[in-house]
Amino acid sequence: ASGEAERAAFLQRPYELFRAYGQSKLANVLFTTELARRLRAKGSRIPANVVHPGEVSTEVMRDMNPVIIRLNEIFKLVMVFFLKSPHQGCACTVDVATAPGLGDAAAAPSGAFFM
Q1: Where are the domains of the chain?
Q2: The pLDDT value given to residue 115
Q3: Segment (H or E) for 65
Q4: How far is CA 35 from CA 23, 31, 78, 99, in A?
Q5: Torsions phi, psi of 76, nearest 5?
Q6: Which keywords label this protein (predicted)?
Q7: What is the predicted pLDDT for the residue at 80?
Q8: Which of 69, 72, 90, 109 sits a CA distance of 20 to 30 A from 38?
């Protein structure tokens, strides 16, 4: 019954975009960690890892509320000095997918978080 009460409470709260985004990212990490654990328990050598690109300058805000879009445009003038380019942002994913040490399934980490 606890799960039902939690679901009901969740459905009664107003939708919060950034909270939902954060929860979805946490769900990805938890899913991948559990997948890695289950694969190892079955003796599988398939690694399952989480890759986070960091803060990347993208057009993810393009379809947001006009107020958020405007705020994003203002902050982007400063954030350009702190954000990665899309090319830089994909580097971690490419490295994890192609690094020789990570390709050796016997020695590869599984359930790891790369950033």
Answers
A1: 2-114
A2: 87
A3: none
A4: 18, 6, 39, 21
A5: -60, -30
A6: Oxidoreductase
A7: 80
A8: 90
CA contacts within 13 A on the Cβ side of 113: 10
Q: Which helix (H) or strand (E) holds 84?
A: none
Question: Is-contact 76 57, C-beta < 8 A?
Answer: yes
Q: Which listed residue (15, 18, 81, 82) is catalytic?
A: 15
Helix (H) or strand (E) holding 62: none
Q: Stretch 47-55: mean pLDDT, rounded? A: 90
Kindly list the distances between the CA atom of residue 90 and the CA atoms of 3, 46, 79, 87, 97, in Å, as whole numbers in the listed order: 37, 22, 18, 6, 11
21 is catalytic: no
Joined together, the tokens standing for residue 58 give 């993208």
Q: Could you give the C-alpha distances from 16 to 67, 71, 111, in angstroms and in order?
A: 15, 17, 29
